[in-house]
User: Fold these one by one.
Assistant:
Number 1:
Amino acid sequence: MSCPECFSGAVHEGTPTGTVTKLHGLDVYVAEPSSGNPPKAIIVLIPDIFGWTFVNLQLMADSFAKKKDYRVYIPEFMNGNAAPPSMLESLQKVIVPKTWYETFSKPYHILWLLVTAFPAIYLNRPGRTFPIVKSFMESLRQNEAAHLPVGVTGYCWGGKHTVLLAEGFTVDSKPLMDAGFTAHPSFLSLFGEIEKMTVPVSFAIGDKDNQVSPTQAKELEKIVLNKPDGQKGECRVYAGYGHGFACRGDVLNDDPKGAVEAEDQALAWFEKHFEGIKY
């Protein structure tokens, strides 16, 4: 499925404060609690199509770690095949050109988007990348997270993988993740993948999202709310927001309130579901 909005938005300002290391065979961005306290849980942030080095998501990882004393990992799940952030500027000029020159240059930007977008989508198709994600999660659970709760948060491309992980995979009789969150997930197979979930997942979806319509979001919410205790999810629809609002901004709505509230939604969900977990 094509998703032009998967490549839209903006690069945020700021300097990430985490470190880069090698973990279970992958390059990983790591954000540690700024308090100096031991981490009370581990969050794996699965990025959008712009990958693990995208500054917006590294800043978000820093924020998660600072606010809740989590250790946050952003692994390189794409083997160097992430889309370049420069695509954001090109798509912005295609969707909402601000000058006559940007209007005149639209064919150039469309060609550039085609040349860069399709390889990123093809090389990062879930059938190819999910085994890498699952293997990393297994190693993480057996090592760093052997005695800690694990949450997974996924954006756009990463949302698909969050939903797949929620099917209830285990290692050493422990779930690979204890709770999940996803904002504007892409490429979902609705509603079969939602029905297969056995791990509680919180969804944040804009009512102008091109991947999940308001009608589909309502059905999604019905499915996750009707799951048994311990598996129930939630779905919040953000009025006036489109695809990408939680991590890149939205070309249709540049109000950052939605992104702030989506982050609060994720943190509240993890706090709720990590309570009482001991391994």
Number 2:
Amino acid sequence: MMRRNRLLLIAVLYCSLPVAQAGGACPSVTRVGLSDLGYAAYREQGRIAGIAVEIANEMGRRTGCKFEFHWYPRQRLFIEMEAGHIDMTMGSVRTPERDAYARHLPYAYLQYDLVLAAAPSRQYHSLADFVEHGSGRLNVTRGVTYGAAVDAQLALLAAAGRLEVVNDYETVFGKLEMGRADGTLATPPIYSKYLKQSSLHRRAAVIPIAEATARFTGIYLSKKTMEEQVRQRYALTLKTMVADLYVHGIYTRYFDEAIVKRTFRQGQGPLLTALSAPED
């Protein structure tokens, strides 16, 4: 099995490398949209950094193309892409609405957890359990896609007056620290950063929820502003970066072994299959 996986990796690299390095002119610049996603994308001392930036920079290095980073609130990000003002987004979950104007390229997985500002008096096994038996208010970030099962529970919280939607995770975790909200939904890259930087790390509770399943996170490439040849070139470059474990290596620099294992527990196979699929 190990030998077969090694041969598959070599085959992927061999087939992808010539296209990633050659063929087709780069755009004058690829405008990359990012938003607050904890260690996945953040602003610090006037610069944009994080996992997504490292991935985009390596794509630029391997293709020789120029990438330019732009910061937006999460909800605004995809409005700007649909309007043709940016060419590429990072840390993006695939949805049918976004597929209409962009191509999705996955590079990792994400899964949301329930993050409470203080350890609860009872144990919750799901978001539905929290909705039914809890009394706390959640703050969530506008423009984030959670999936149908989670959305159904958030609708119940909203109807009960226990949900507030804000612009970004910085606001969410600031309110949690000040006691103006009781919890949120976030992925490990998001809450790892914000818990570490605040007093919340001494008292917060992170609870896996049954409604949240692991999903692809990745890049969206605009079908409006980017030629298909360029999209294909970027797809093959990212595929090589996933296959040679470069993306995996970025995650190991930010997180402990447990989080990295959880992030990639479905393995490289589904990611490579999705990256090999023809464009719709």
Number 3:
Amino acid sequence: MRAELSPSQVEQLAALRRAVGELGSVVLGLSGGVDSTLLAKVCADELGKRALAVIAVSPSLPTREQAAARDLAAEIGIAWREVATGEVDDPRYAANTGNRCYFCKHELFSRMVAIAAEEGYQALAYGENADDAGDHRPGRVAAREQHVCAPLAQAGLAKEDVRALARHLDLPVADKPAFACLASRVPVGHEVTPDKLAQVERAETALWDLGFDHRVRVRHHDTIARIEVPCELLAAVVDRAEAVAEAVRAAGFEHATLDLAGYRRGGGIATGAGTALPLARQG
């Protein structure tokens, strides 16, 4: 049985379908998160072969997430294409100032613009929702500059509305936690490099393989890994401290610490953080 929608959410879904249908044809970004997956589903329903999902391939994105996006596109039934993006080669991105996301989105949208121009698609779209307007989102500037529309936001969908519609449409990512790119694990002002991104990905993948969910974050502080998990999982990490520390050191870090403040969005923005607990005796 499909999940029930409130009357306002029924109207939002109808508004979303209208907004997508009016695009005529579209190239959209698909990351595999709930926002872009809902958008891809509605584009597939309303536009069929006139919709193309672009999946970015980049060192800043975990290979596991890229594979999940491919599987979702196939399940939804939307045409999709992987496109290599080169934001990590841009020194402005690598400098990791507060507008790093602008250069990432600009690179992706530029690739989408080229595809649309070469193949005759009428519009570009991405999965921004109405709640994102209140966040620091340099990528929105890139979207505006390159005329990339945000149908979810246009239909007034907040994050919880997006999840409700995703459940209603039986999308498997309806309750998937938000997942920022790997570069968000490097404190602002510290250079982002492919080696650092690969190191973070190895560490987080190892922790996922130990059974911790996608809310785990490994913040990169040179030789130190600062692990963030939701507060309810702190005890579980401590209970498995030796295995966690071993996994993180195998990824290339010298020290593994646990941030006692727990997981929080934007935990990589500042160099400083909450109190850190070493997870194993060092030296």
Number 4:
Amino acid sequence: MLITKADGTTQQFDATKLERSLRRAGAKSEDVIQVLAEVEKSLTPGVKTHEIYERAFAVLRGRGGPTSARYTLRAAIQQLGPTGFPFEDFMARLFEYEGYKTLTRQNLQGQCALHEIDVVGYRGDKTFIGEVKFHKDPGYKSDLQTALYSYARYLDVLESKVCAEDICGINTLKIITNTKFTQAMLEYSLCKGIELHSWGFPHGDASLESLVEKYQMYPITILSSLSEHHKILLMQRSIVLCRDFIDKQQELRALKIPEKIIIAAAAEAEALFAQQIQ
């Protein structure tokens, strides 16, 4: 049966993709079987992929446990907006787990112009500048234009340093998005040696979702116990991760978040970390 992807194109429904996403979220075998059966029973021609995943989430949530929250990880990352700054902070924290010291929203003087860089990171073997593209629309793809201007900026700041240490000379450009890249951008970036991170790319353990799962970088937007108002309030104070929520509960009380909501959300967050991926 043909279904409609986020970018408007159509493809045949592939139950194995749904099964992989369920297992990645830690769903038990009996849950996977039940969700697949319920989803396939409700399919209609042209149904949108987000509707399929919403149906899968509803079935998972009805079966209880933290798996349903982890299954909504992509949607939770989509909520790290609307300014994009929370996503920049999120990525900076992620790269810290990769061994980098990071800074966000830095002004670097190039040979010809002053540039604001979304995130920079440095460690013994590598120093990068990163262009972080946040898109609220899950069907929007970062395109060739992004790669072209990012690479021009990279060339202009190559002689600059991101800090005073000897290891701080720039040698790598990264482009990160919460959605996907166009094929033209992928080909250009491969040609120019640009490192890309997006949902599903590169294949293996360096894609956005793989890195998030590897380091358990669950954003607070994944917590259903929090209202949209509370999530925005927390992100405005750079509390972006579930582990921040657990560690900074005293600060949360100062924000006048009701105690029962703090307790419920903290329990929800702790359940995410306690569950092991099957």
